[in-house]
Write a structure and sequence with these properties.
Strand order of the largest sheet: 1-2-3
Number of strands: 3
Largest sheet: 3 strands, antiparallel
Helix content: 55-70%
Mean pLDDT: 84
Shape: globular
Distance between the termini: 21 Å
Radius of gyration: 22 Å
Number of helices: 13
Length: about 400
């Protein structure tokens, strides 16, 4: 009997540890949203459970989306990544149309669809990550060229950044730029190019800050929060008081004083400070460990993916969650200037929760290491994808992909 010449790929189970970590984060987030919002919900709506009930709805939808993306072969997204990015970018344009958008604190970031609201900037981060994975996987062997590595990604980022800054949403703009740089580096771009692009990006950030007085004021407040304790520095000072009150073990779940209308956005951007106040350093450290576990599983999935597109997408998802969590925690602890980014899976927010669940669904799908189905074989064979994956891993992580 002659040996088979066909490539054999063993299907693995999805990463159950990753799923357990994410479900734990979501459950913990529900508890903390209720604890942080109970007073403000009662004050605004006469219902202490208002934000909890809304967040439960977001979680239910998010878990359904997670299941869908865990089932959908992730290879299908490679073909339509550009189309998806174009659609969500068009939604950014719609946000600028009067009557379609909803404004809060001087920013127009939500599309008002009557029954519910959508925040297109969250979708754009997801769409841009998919586009970068598609582009880099198709041009991976040419990334030594400046033109190939950066021209198209920077142009696309420039269009997205222009729309985001019109809202304005400076935080999402920075996050998209960071994801682009990390993904190009992970795909095998020379480190010298990354440093140059990073320096140019830092220059654009400095220009954006110095040309807008409110951004400059945020930076000055970050450098000296006590310069305006009842104005620009009020929120960050209240957050620091929360952490100081929590000490090692915290004041107990539900025991926060800052959520009694002292700390604005206690259940959204600044929920980490309530966690520090109620659960102390120990509770905050446990949350940080869960995010580290999520990042570890994401990187492991990227290292063993069955295609370069899957590997880059897994890395992009992991980098997106990690960067957003680090920025949020850094802002709340006064290590970074104030930015309007939520804490992944923990903060209150519908679009953010749904997009994050979709991202985790993709990670779970990639972790199964299955080849693309027959209806996606029009351009690439399984062997081509596996060879591409091996090249990716060798260049980025210096560890050959295992194919059984």
């Amino acid at each position: 009997m002659q040996p088979s010449t066909e490539t054999q790929v063993t299907e693995h189970r999805y990463d159950r540890l990753l799923l357990a970590i994410v479900l734990t984060l979501i459950g913990f987030g529900l508890v903390m949203v209720y604890s942080a919002s109970i007073v403000s919900a009662d004050h605004q709506f006469g219902d202490p459970t208002y934000f909890l009930r809304k967040q439960i709805q977001h979680v239910v939808i998010g878990l359904a989306v997670l299941g869908f993306f865990a089932w959908l072969p992730h290879h299908a997204l490679e073909r339509y990544a550009g189309v998806l990015l174009a659609i969500v970018s068009f939604m950014l344009l719609l946000v600028l149309v009067p009557g379609l958008s909803t404004s809060a604190k001087g920013a127009s970031r939500w599309l008002n669809l009557g029954v519910f609201r959508i925040q297109p900037s969250e979708l754009v981060k997801f769409g841009f990550m998919l586009f970068m994975a598609q582009y880099l996987s198709r041009n991976q062997m040419k990334l030594h060229s400046w033109k190939v590595s950066w021209l198209i990604p920077v142009v696309v980022l420039g269009v997205i950044a222009t729309l985001l800054m019109r809202q304005p949403d400076f935080g999402s703009t920075i996050l998209c730029g960071l994801i682009m740089t990390l993904m190009v580096f992970a795909a095998g771009c020379p480190l010298k190019q990354v440093f140059v692009i990073g320096a140019v990006g830092a220059g654009f950030i400095a220009l954006a800050v110095t040309t807008q007085s409110y951004r400059m004021k945020r930076v000055m407040t970050f450098l000296n929060p006590d310069s305006d304790p009842l104005g620009a520095g009020y929120q960050i000072n209240q957050a620091l008081i929360s952490f100081g009150s929590g000490d090692l073990t915290g004041m107990g779940l539900g025991g926060s004083r800052q959520k009694l209308m002292y700390l604005p956005d206690a259940h959204t951007d600044f929920i980490f400070s309530i966690i520090g106040e109620e659960l102390g350093l120990i509770g905050s450290a446990c949350l940080l460990l869960m995010f580290i576990g999520l990042i570890w599983r994401g990187i492991s999935i990227a290292r063993t993916a069955s295609s370069s597109f899957g590997a880059l997408m897994a890395f992009g998802v992991t980098a997106l969650v990690a960067a957003q969590a680090c920025i949020n925690m850094g802002v709340v602890m006064a290590l970074l200037p104030t930015k309007g980014l939520t804490l992944p899976f923990i903060s209150y927010g519908g679009t953010s929760m749904i997009v994050l669940c979709a991202s985790v669904g993709l990670l779970l799908n990639i972790s199964k290491r299955t080849p693309p189905p027959a209806w996606l074989h029009s351009k690439h064979t399984i062997t081509t994808k596996l060879d591409s994956a091996e090249s990716f891993v060798q260049r980025w992580l210096h560890k050959p992909a295992q194919v059984t």
